UniProtKB/TrEMBL annotation:
<keyword id="KW-0812">Transmembrane</keyword>
<feature type="transmembrane region" description="Helical">
    <location>
        <begin position="12"/>
        <end position="34"/>
    </location>
</feature>
<dbReference type="InterPro" id="IPR008407">
    <property type="entry name" value="Brnchd-chn_aa_trnsp_AzlD"/>
</dbReference>
<dbReference type="Pfam" id="PF05437">
    <property type="entry name" value="AzlD"/>
</dbReference>
<feature type="transmembrane region" description="Helical">
    <location>
        <begin position="97"/>
        <end position="114"/>
    </location>
</feature>
<feature type="transmembrane region" description="Helical">
    <location>
        <begin position="46"/>
        <end position="65"/>
    </location>
</feature>
<keyword id="KW-1133">Transmembrane helix</keyword>
<keyword id="KW-0472">Membrane</keyword>
<protein>
    <recommendedName>
        <fullName>Branched-chain amino acid transport</fullName>
    </recommendedName>
</protein>
<feature type="transmembrane region" description="Helical">
    <location>
        <begin position="71"/>
        <end position="90"/>
    </location>
</feature>
């Protein structure tokens, strides 16, 4: 991958994959490493979990409702459908974030190629 590949059609999808999975899992692993001694029902951990969930929900909502770049060329129904497919994959296929992101991308890319 070079700097010039940023204009290729596949680059936004790789970015979504990395931005959707990597930051989430890094914090999860760091939380396991550092937070092993913190009680799960402590007020601090509940507050951190609430803020993290709200941030992820906000980013997803912004991507669906106010997209930019290649994502803006898709319909809102396709973006909502891709998010729903990702969520269902998360629930049905072992609650792995990477699986849900890949499932949502497959639906999104398929919809873009079929012109939905």
């Amino acid at each position: 991958m070079t700097w010039h590949s940023l204009t290729d059609w596949w680059w936004p999808y790789i970015f979504i994959l990395l931005a959707g999975w990597l930051p989430t899992d890094i914090w999860r692993y760091l939380g396991v490493f550092v937070g092993g001694k913190v009680r799960e029902d402590s007020d601090a951990l509940i507050a951190v979990r609430a803020v993290a969930t709200a941030l992820v929900a906000g980013v997803i909502a912004q991507l669906i409702l106010y997209p930019s770049g290649s994502l803006a060329e898709s319909s809102v129904f396709l973006r909502i459908g891709a998010a729903a497919a990702g969520f269902l994959a998360y629930l049905r296929l072992g609650r792995h974030v990477i699986v849900s992101v890949i499932a949502a991308e497959i639906v999104l890319i398929t919809g873009l190629f079929l012109d939905f």
